[in-house]
Amino acid sequence: MFKSRHILQVALVTMAAASCGGRYRTEEGLPPADAQGYATVRVENENISDMRIYVRPNSTGSRFRLGTANGMETTTLKIPRSFVMGVSQLLFEISPISGGGSQFSQTITVNLVEPGTLYGDRVNQFDIRVAKNLRFGGTRTNVGFDLTNVLNSNPVLTYNEAFSTTTNTWLRPNSVLQPRLVKFSAQFNF
Q1: If you average pLDDT over residues 12-20, what whole number do you get?
Q2: Which region holds residue 19: left if phi is over 0, alpha if psi is between -120 and 50, else beta?
């Protein structure tokens, strides 16, 4: 029986998602995206048996064979972009070539974009208010003029952060800055 102490250690080294869209800033020390659109997984096989490595886009999806991890070696396998894009979680299946039951990794959450690298537009809003207090006998009147978003800028405030392979709504703007607005006001105090 394949015991849990012989479970293959799967370490996710790079989940680089090419062509995610948006403004992407690369930081030093981060591995670059593979030109063919692959992500990689490093497998440390601490067992003497060779293992077949499969990946599933989620716990119920069909599996895809990544390759073989030789016994007592570290192997780097490529994960096709189609398995990385559109999925937020991956499940790895480890099956010994010599037979026995398959073992599954814990579900691994995959970031489509490295945290701290994708930013929205800067929000700059310029507002003007002009008001004057007027006195007429025993009454006081405050007359005002407000102009909000004078430059009529329209940066996106919130984005759709849910990724789906069936719809094209990832990073679609949900709300933008309110357009230019003019307001006249008067307040009477007596």
Answers
A1: 31
A2: left
